[in-house]
Amino acid sequence: MAGVRVVIVGGGIGGLAAAVALRAKGIQADVYEQAQRFSEVGAGFMLAPNSLRVLERLGLHDEITRFGAHFTGFTVCRADGTEVSSVPLGGADGYTMFGMYRADMVNLLVSGLPGDALHIDHRCVAFAQDDDRAVVTFENGETAEGDVVIGADGIHSVLQQYVVEPRDPVFSGLAAYRGVMPAERVPDWPDGAVRFWSDSTRNLLVYPVRRGELLNFVAFGVADEQMRESWSAPGDPRQLTAGYGDGWDPLAGEVVSQVDATFRWGIYDRESLRQWTRGRLALLGDAAHPMLPYMGQGANQAIEDGMGLATLLEGVRTVDVPHVLVRYQTLRRDRAARFQQGSRFNVELMAAGKAPILGMPWMYDYDVEAEARTLR
Ligand SMILES: Cc1cc2nc3c(=O)[nH]c(=O)nc-3n(C[C@H](O)[C@H](O)[C@H](O)COP(=O)(O)OP(=O)(O)OC[C@H]3O[C@@H](n4cnc5c(N)ncnc54)[C@H](O)[C@@H]3O)c2cc1C
């Protein structure tokens, strides 16, 4: 492979998708992950048309259709099941939405990368750069050198401090219980349906993943303690069930009554960063733009980041890297900030009993690769 060498720190959906995109453009990219294996929490996420478009170009569309659950309808309702709005599922060019089990998505991305590009048990502890190169140091004593270093190391990014002054994540006051269950436990669940119930204090989002074999649930409510976003603790299913009794749609009750295992997260985001890059280092995914999960776009934006970056870096000389990374920031920062702010706004809208902003053309119809080409 010719051109620049990229070191990616963090092997979540963002880092892995970036590596697949970079390699598809003929750029050498290696992923360094702190954990002992590439894995994800036992939960799902929604793949939206804006990232499906990217994944198709990376040759992954068939795999997504094989592992994902194709959505047939997305209804936002009040707690009692009355419909508030119906969310469009498709972009203008026909791309739609899939529910993905996170572990399936990680496996799918990992299988798109050569084994020698993947390095587990590498926790980044330091970063240094000069005019010619950048070097990452790992806790195990090893180092990795590249023309570009990408910090894809999540909301508690270690690399972020080398780009901007460190600031604490912002706690939303919300906590989420989430998990999956065999879909056969809820025989009344309509095939391919997404439901988002909400009252002024809690929301419940349910959708199928893994070809419809599993149902994913996310139950948001007011947190009674601060929990670190990256730290998940087992939640008590009885506590979860208690909130969805009187006045709630029986279908919501049916779902939560079948939960036998769940994890609980405190929900954080950050103020939009002024800067995403410094020299040869750039941030990507939650390290750059953590957002509240109320637009379902955190991972989708991370996938866009990777394709945008790869398009801009294709064929670039090492001496030009810092300028190109500034272009990456120009391409990505305002769009990601719009989702960060929009996700916060959706929390307010829903607390006021209004429909959240979801499925708008500016979200779905965006083509990050085409936009990146205009900046080359
Ligand atoms: C309840 C909830 C629901 C959500 N639903 C959706 C949804 O429907 N759609 C959507 O698009 N998004 C959703 N999101 C957001 C999405 O989960 C995140 O935006 C996305 O996973 C971020 O990916 P990432 O790769 O940037 O970061 P992460 O997934 O956090 O990955 C970072 C990786 O870096 C590794 N790492 C960290 N520090 C180091 C280090 N020092 N050295 C080496 N490795 C390191 C970590 O181990 C991890 O593997 C949701 C989030 C929540 C909380």
Furnish the topology, listing elements before pairings.
Elements: E1 5-9, H1 13-24, E2 28-32, E3 44-47, H2 49-57, H3 61-67, E4 69-70, E5 73-78, E6 83-86, E7 98-101, H4 102-110, E8 118-119, E9 124-129, E10 134-138, E11 143-146, E12 148-151, E13 170-182, E14 193-198, E15 203-209, E16 214-222, E17 233-235, H5 237-242, H6 250-257, E18 262-269, E19 277-278, E20 281-283, H7 298-313, H8 321-351, H9 361-364, H10 368-374
Parallel strand pairs: 1-2, 1-12, 2-8, 5-14, 12-20
Antiparallel strand pairs: 3-7, 4-7, 5-6, 9-10, 10-11, 13-16, 13-18, 14-15, 15-16, 17-18, 19-20
Helix pairs in contact: 1-4, 1-7, 2-7, 7-8, 7-10
The structure holds flavin-adenine dinucleotide.
Describe the structure.
- This protein has 376 residues and is of the alpha+beta class.
- It has one domain (5-168, 270-374): FAD/NAD(P)-binding domain (3-Layer(bba) Sandwich).
- The chain contains 10 helices and 20 strands.
- It has helices spanning 13-24, 49-57, 61-67, 102-110, 237-242, 250-257, 298-313, 321-351, 361-364, 368-374; strands spanning 5-9, 28-32, 44-47, 69-70, 73-78, 83-86, 98-101, 118-119, 124-129, 134-138, 143-146, 148-151, 170-182, 193-198, 203-209, 214-222, 233-235, 262-269, 277-278, 281-283.
- Strands 6-5-14-15-16-13-18-17 form an 8-stranded mixed β-sheet.
- β9 and β10 (134-138) form a beta hairpin.
- α1 runs parallel beside α4 (102-110), α1 runs parallel beside α7 (298-313) and α7 (298-313) runs parallel beside α10 (368-374).
- The mean pLDDT is 93.
- Flavin-adenine dinucleotide binds next to α1, β3, β13 and α7.
